[in-house]
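Hi R.,

Here are the chain sequences for the assembly we discussed:
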Amino acid sequence: MSSSPPLQQQVTLLELVDRVLNKGVVLTGDITLSVAGVDLVYVGLRVLLASVATLEAARGEP
Amino acid sequence: MNLHVYALTEPPAELPAAEGIDGARISSITVGEVDVVVSENAAVAPSEAAVLAHARVVEQLLERNETVLPVRFGTGFSDEHVLRTQIEERAAPFRDALERLRGRAEIGLRVNRPEAGESSAASSGTEYLAHRLAELQSARKLAEQIHGPLAARADAATENVLATPELLLSAAYLVAREQVEEFRADVERLAGEHEDLTFVCTGPWPPYSFATVEAGS
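And here is the predicted structure of the full complex:
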């Protein structure tokens, strides 16, 4: 494969946020977080800038 | 009270060891033929920690259950009764979706091409548009050389060509879990055939991109 580890990790983080926020079944809850477009981008960028260690720690916990 | 929903599974749901958002305990509520995996939270802010906690719970559900229907982050119910009503209204589509996703996971693929250089200055708007169209058509052909064989091997696939000028292909593939390694090997092989392109393959994911369910009857 052609991607180096840091790129792989960055993309994985981006893809994780994209999936959790933009994909998955939409249920019509009565308390739905109003994550408007701007908020989504904000959250996405924040997570993208988070350290890889944070992601690995979060995903590696039993 | 806020019941935050992570995913739907088949009863009996095998719950993850991990905590939910803000350290809340994960539990499940059986509604007919579906188990709804939830946690009780005071209020959920769309923070990095909450998003990662949500993702972690769904991922662990995939490890422990045959079929998982991921729910988008941000859905909450003020009480169980409202939740039950919502789920019951779409009972059949949810059951069908869980069946369709049984034993499956999702593989993500992004293929980047080197930044396309500026073409020689077009002398007219028409020429520019013609050039852009030709570029798009050639990109689609190239993307299809990669996406085509992979989609043929998958149960389902999504495809996005040239979402940005560098992102030749952005795709997701629904694949049986025991075929994930073989699928990744296919991706590796295609990467070898296109060494000027950068392939980034991610997953296996819970099948977020294939969690489409019709509206209730």
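The longest strand of chain B covers residues 167-176. DSSP finds five helices and nine strands in chain B.

Let me know if anything looks off.

Best,
T.
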